[in-house]
Amino acid sequence: MRHGTGAVLAALTIAVSGPARADKTNECTAAAEAAQTLRNAGKLVQAQAQLLTCMKTCPRLVQTDCGQWLHDVEMRIASVVVRATDARGADVLNVRVTMDGAVLVNRLDGLAAPVDPGVHRFVFERDGSVTVTQDVTIREGEKARTISVTLPDPPTPKREQPVREPRRLFPTSSLVLGALGAVGLGTFAVYHLSAKSDLDAMRSECAPRCPADGVDTLDQKILVSNIALGVGATALASAVLVFVFEGGWRSSTAPTAAKAKAPFVVSF
User: Fold this and answer.
1) Of the residues 76, 99, 120, which one is the last residue of a structural domain?
2) Nearest-CA neighbor of 1 among 60, 54, 79?
3) How confident is the model at residue 262 (pLDDT cuts 50, 70, 90)?
4) Domain assignment of residue 54, given as a range
5) What sign has the CA pseudo-torsion 253, 257, 258, 260?
6) Residues 111, 175 contacting (CB under 8 angstroms)
7) CATH number of the CATH domain containing 139
């Protein structure tokens, strides 16, 4: 082809005249020389592109030679059809394929892609799946060679199980307040019954002139019973509120993340 390129340059010298076409001549010459270099290096796909430029930019006298070289290159160029299937044999389309580190296709469409003959490394990549590599020897002039791989299915994402909090029927603060309320009501009952007994006895024995110390004792018992009743009732009411607002009725299947309420605080 080097001899042919020299003939092209000679033809250009004859066919082209004047500076008006100097740029086009330079483009034609560069394309022809580049095509020769690429063809000799076995880079037929790039040589084809340069010869197409030669066909477009060179004079008709030269185009005949460029056409013959182009036909020779196209006969020697190989092509491949890349294919990927899943474990069930179904076609997978969303696959990116590189050849020798350069992108060949970004998505599988079943069309043949031109490649240079020789040994090539094809890498099939799919999001979420294992990358598959295949080394293949492509012969000169081999057309539509199928390069097929099987891609494993992407792993099924594990569903995170929500952390579940045991159902708390009786929060600690509610238990404490409930116990305090029970003690208060118990104290009220004891002192109330004692005061009622003393009052009944005084009515039947000394009323209306009962000793002062007996009356003071009765008043103290009544006071203590009233205080115990107030404390007991307040503590029990507070225990109920804490039980409700601190999640005493929360279902045992409710995720911990669902709890977003602030704790209820009872102060005296």
Assistant:
1) 76
2) 54
3) very low
4) 2-76
5) positive
6) no
7) 2.60.40.1120
Tell me: do 20 and 66 sit in the same domain.
Answer: yes
Indicate if 69 and 82 belong to the same structural domain: no
pLDDT of residue 240: 79
Q: What is the pLDDT of residues 207-222, one digit of tens each?
A: 777 888 878 887 888 8
**Closest-CA residue to 120 (of 149, 84, 141, 147):** 147
Joined together, the tokens standing for residue 116 give 């240079």
Q: Are residues 215 and 235 in the same domain?
A: yes
Quote the CA–CA distance of 79 and 214 in Å, as a whole number: 119
- DSSP symbols for the chain: -HHHHHHHHHHHHHH--SGGGHHHHHHHHHHHHHHHHHHHTT-HHHHHHHHHHHHHHS-HHHHHHHHHHHHHHHHH-EEEEEEEE-TTS-B--S-EEEETTEEEESS--S--EEE-SEEEEEEEE-TTS--EEEEEEEPTT--SEEEEEEPPPPPPPPPPPPPBPPP-SS-HHHHHHHHHHHHHHHHHHHHHHHHHHHHHHHHHHTTTS--HHHHHHHHHHHHHHHHHHHHHHHHHHHHHHHHHHTTTT--TTSBGGG--PPPP----
> Which pTM value belongs to this model?
0.52
